[in-house]
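From the methods appendix. Each design record in this collection lists the tokenized structure first, followed by the designed amino acid sequence. Records were kept in a plain field format so they could be parsed without special tools. The example shown here is representative of the layout used throughout.

RECORD:
FOLD TOKENS (195 positions):
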């Protein structure tokens, strides 16, 4: 198999998210992955510096950078479709695992093991994956806030659902982030710089 792994990863910029919604500005998978990585890193740092944790914040960021990599081959499956029922979710999970295997085949043997540890969920990273999932939800909430700020009511229902999911995350670092950092996403540039 040809070694196309990194060329495919670079194609994340061509995959738009929120395909069923009218967007004022499209969000690519690359942008999403970067923002989730920044947020996951922040959550780990908050856990370490404020709540006495000892997480590897850099690893949290790397896991987040690649968390949607299988979508390079599958495309972005809209949440209502992906979670329609248990059978659909199982089928999508199988497709996603097949995508990971295909991506792994595109690496030389020497790189397969380290990338497999990033693309698959290992028990030793369970807490970090919780942070990535929380960061993913926070990023979705930020997208809703940005669309609402632009006058787009299309995301109003999604915002309510995602707010519930984010509020249900029982991690102190997530609650801290929501309280201290999330409100800023609703501000204008002038409000940020003149505060």
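DESIGN:
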């Amino acid at each position: 198999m040809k070694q196309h792994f990194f060329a495919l990863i670079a194609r994340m910029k061509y995959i738009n998210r929120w395909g069923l919604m009218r967007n004022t500005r499209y969000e690519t998978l690359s942008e999403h992955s970067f923002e989730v990585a920044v947020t996951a890193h922040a959550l780990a740092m908050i856990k370490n510096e404020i709540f006495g944790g000892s997480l590897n914040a850099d690893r949290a960021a790397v896991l987040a950078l690649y968390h949607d990599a299988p979508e390079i081959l599958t495309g972005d499956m809209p949440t209502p479709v992906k979670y329609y029922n248990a059978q659909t979710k199982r089928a999508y999970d199988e497709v996603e695992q097949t995508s990971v295997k295909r991506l792994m085949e595109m690496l030389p043997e020497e790189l397969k093991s380290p990338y497999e540890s990033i693309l698959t969920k290992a028990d030793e990273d369970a807490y970090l994956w919780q942070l990535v999932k929380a960061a993913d939800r926070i990023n979705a909430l930020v997208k809703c806030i940005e669309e609402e700020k632009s006058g787009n009511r299309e995301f109003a229902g999604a915002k309510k659902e995602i707010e519930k999911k984010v509020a249900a995350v029982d991690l102190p670092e997530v609650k801290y982030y929501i309280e201290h950092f999330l409100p800023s996403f609703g501000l204008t540039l002038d409000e940020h710089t003149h505060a």
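APPENDIX NOTE: The two ends are 54 Å apart (CA to CA).
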